[in-house]
Amino acid sequence: MSAVISERQAMAKWVYSFGGGTSDGGAEMRNLLGGKGANLAEMASIGLPVPPGFTITTEVCTEVTQKGGHPGDLAGQVKAALAQVEQALGMSFGDTANPLLVSVRSGARVSMPGMMDTVLNLGLNDETVEGLARRSGDPRFAYDSYRRFIQMFGDVVLGVEHHHFEEILELAKEDLDKSLDTELTAEEWRQVIGQYKAKVEEETGAPFPQDPEAQLWAAIDAVFKSWTNQRAVSYRRLYNIPEEWGTAVNVQAMVFGNMGDDCATGVAFTRDPSTGENQFYGEYLVNAQGEDVVAGIRTPQNITIAGKQKNQSDLPAMEETMPEIFRQLVEVRETLEQHYRDMQDIEFTVQSGTLYMLQTRNGKRTAKAALKIACDMVEEGLIDEAEAVSRVEPGSLDQLLHPTLDPKAQRKVIARGLPASPGAASGMVVFDADEAERQRDAGNKVLLCRVETSPEDIHGMHAAQGILTTRGGMTSHAAVVARGMGRPCVSGAGELRIDYKSGVMRVRDVEVRAGDLLTIDGGTGEIMLGEVPTIQPELSGDFAKLMGWADKHRRLKVRTNAETPADCRTAVKFGCEGIGLCRTEHMFFDAGRIVAVREMILAEDEAGRRKALDKILPMQRDDFVEIFQIMRGLPVTIRLLDPPLHEFLPHGEEEMAEVAEAAGASVDKLRARLLRLSETNPMLGHRGCRLGITYPEIYEMQARAIFEAACKVQKETGETVEPEVMIPLVAMPRELEILKELVDRTAKEAMAAAGVEVAYLVGTMIELPRAALLAGKIAEAAEFFSFGTNDLTQTTYGLSRDDAGNFLPAYEARGIVKQDPFISLDQEGVGELVGIAAERGRKTRPGLKLGICGEHGGDPASIRFCESVGLDYVSCSPFRVPIARLAAAQAALAERLRDV
Ligand code: PEP
Ligand code: MG
């Protein structure tokens, strides 16, 4: 066995080279080479200027992190790939005259910005640094590079914390009376390097490693291991990235953007990632190394003159300072967009007047930009409508469905920053990520305000309504992460000064303290005192266009779960095609009728109940009239009463007295009845159709209200009304038979009285495992099924809907469940029951209408599942209707692809 494994290992290819116009890999190899590695290979093969290098595959990550060693022949393959780089550049790794330096970077299948480690300038030591000084003719640059290397390698590989180096540098600058790093001379950097090395030896007990090969292997291993660091683990948990994917490691020849004024480094998006406009959008810094742009230490300059004007910057654009490089970059932009047919996020470096591409990937974008880019690209002929539909992440539409600032509202703008991620957000000011989480848990809306953010702040950004930073550009950590999360963000508001110690933020004579209310507008960059009113979003333009395309491609219908007129109207505006679940018990809670409802429940006998029900009937009828009118001919599924009875019971003496008076009974009698009704396990108790069986007069009243309302609306409007009466919590076929007979009888009476024929259906929820298993029998009476996956999940797992939150997070943390099954359908278990019920139900009654109305009806992954088992519709809360429409279209497209 082990001989077989080692043979496979010996033959396997662990290392893929790229550069010099060719490559072993390509964009389609993302799983093996990671996103960065696959795209470097792709760029090299389409002739873009990529410094040569190689990628060590994600498979090696698994070997290193799980088995602690390298697979057979990795060393040989790395050596050969390195030799190829040396040959392409005419330089040698470790050579004292003309040393090749490399970067060692992580690169997972999906981008995880800032979560894993990177080492730059690797290959420098006390001797090669002299060679670099001579070759570049710039000793200051060479020593600066060496000290950056010691700092990064020390931190990432040797575990010497960053602050040790920062302290040494700060003290040195103080002694030399210099405030900027760029003011230090070569000799001064040499002295800092001496102190850095001494610190490393003091902390690790060994001198700083001088052998470039040993440096390389230590860095490769450290980058692989950073896959399992705390930051990366939390990030993966947040974004559901499987641990087994692993990261690749990219080793690439260094190019320097910090060798003088004909050097630069920058990042750009081929289109505006905030608005989606077809404009080149990017930032650069002259004489700087890559990380300087993202770190937000120096204020970056715009690439284009248009960008400079838009951001009201006085700093010259690259279009002005380096016109030839700019021209080349514009060409690269064109090539990349034509090749990838999507907006790209690129990194580049200019070394001594030569442009190098260091990265490309599909750019993160706001939902607004995603829509615009998808629609524009269809118009430009780059993609077709179906592709456009699959380009927009359904969940991201949420960003567009939420309010923006009311333009008429009074606002006191105190400062302005960059419009880094759109949407308006108000909240109390907090300066710390942990505090943001605490305040959110205490039920407060918070605005996280930081000088800048780093990956350690992710949880606080997630907890906040919006994010404000005083430093950093449109590509800073705060901006990129906020856009990805869909949080409004204003970045780089330099006029504001934050004093963390005293918990105050100042701008001119205005002071904002922790706890004060503040509003930001991520679309304009404005920062305002207090809470500013908002307005509902406009759902026309690109949104309507994309939704139209989605509707063309989807098979699943989308309905809504709604019972109030306001919710019904919202859902209709969002394009719902009917009501999939109208929970009538929610109507019973209305302040004007709860006393009558309690009187009905506490009545001693049928006569008492009927007396109370007579009071409720006209109110229920009016509810249904209004709903039928709003839904204008669309199907409306009304579920008969389902709550555990105790939810309606009076609490406290005052409520008891009120009910006693209405019922004409004594408080003592009521109390005794109350005691009899109380249940040990109400979720599994006297609820759903069990109520209808024991107190048929309740369901009879509801059915009467439905049909009287339907007849009235149909008569008055001339439009057909399509009621679907739904019986909840059925476990036994007989339950449904009895209740269907009751509904049919009542319908007949109501229609005869009104002289109107209404076409209606009677069906059931499938929300208990027994119902799913007996679906074939149940379908003899049921004219439709609606999967109540909330209860079906609860009863399949034997997991209380109300209490699971107490311990499920521990299960998620340990990977026992990947996701809360109440949020995303457990396709393996609960899903199998849905599949069985669908199949058995349709066997009895071909064409049986099937839907889902549990919370899962609005979850894109669950919708994909519903498509695969052939349901007819999903039903979800009104605000999720557009998300479901898009997810349903993507599901249909994916299903079609699968069938090809
Ligand atoms: C369900 O159980 O999935 C359902 C929709 O009903 P409720 O949530 O009202 O129990
Ligand atoms: Mg239910």
Automatic annotation (TrEMBL):
Gene3D superfamilies: 1.20.80.30, ATP-grasp fold, A domain, ATP-grasp fold, B domain, Phosphoenolpyruvate-binding domains, Phosphohistidine domain, Pyruvate Phosphate Dikinase, domain 2. The active site is at H477 (tele-phosphohistidine intermediate), C853 (proton donor). The keyword Kinase applies. Its cofactor is Mg(2+). It catalyses: pyruvate + phosphate + ATP = phosphoenolpyruvate + AMP + diphosphate + H(+). Substrate binds at R583, R639, E767, G788, T789, N790, D791. Residues 74-311, 326-380 form the Pyruvate phosphate dikinase AMP/ATP-binding domain. Mg(2+) binds at E767, D791. It holds the Pfam family PPDK_N. GO terms for molecular function: ATP binding; kinase activity; metal ion binding; pyruvate, phosphate dikinase activity. Residues 445-525 form the PEP-utilising enzyme mobile domain. Residues 540-891 form the PEP-utilising enzyme C-terminal domain. Its EC number is 2.7.9.1. Keywords: ATP-binding, Kinase, Magnesium, Metal-binding, Nucleotide-binding, Pyruvate, Transferase. PANTHER family: PHOSPHOENOLPYRUVATE DIKINASE-RELATED, PYRUVATE, PHOSPHATE DIKINASE 1, CHLOROPLASTIC. NCBIfam families: PRK05878.1, pyru_phos_dikin. Belongs to the PEP-utilizing enzyme family. Catalyzes the reversible phosphorylation of pyruvate and phosphate. This is Pyruvate, phosphate dikinase. It comes from Tistlia consotensis USBA 355. The lineage of its organism: Bacteria, Pseudomonadati, Pseudomonadota, Alphaproteobacteria, Rhodospirillales.
